[in-house]
Amino acid sequence: MKKGALHTFSVLMAILVLFSTISFTVEKHFCGKSLVGHAVFSSVEKCKSETHSCGVEGMMSGHMKMGKDSCCSDKTEKITGQDELNLYSISYNLVSPTFIIPKTFMLVDLLPEVSPEAINYPPYQPPQLVYDFQVMCQVFII
Hints:
Shape: elongated
Helix content: 25-40%
Number of strands: 5
Radius of gyration: 39 Å
Mean pLDDT: 77
Strand order of the largest sheet: 2-1-5
């Protein structure tokens, strides 16, 4: 369970780093005040025909040709991610082995010595069978 939780946490952290560093653009194409097309990661499609109406002004003046006076506009939003990642390294100051080795010998000497002959186990009595479950459930080992 601990290994699965650690693996899940590692995957979530990798996804978090991925999404915090990704950059993309969103392009929108407007004809007049209405949104005609939008695209993410690519360029937006422009108006399909050369003549189009542009809202109220287009209805009054008929169809306009796309040119300098075109009522179409493109809006580009660039969403930038984090450019630099701070890499931290953690160093632990461990206790030197010259201190650990004598300490372990001192603790081993404090433990009492137990001989294998001195350990007495009480005799084991198996529990009494009230029902024979294998016969009741008709489950037999073949």
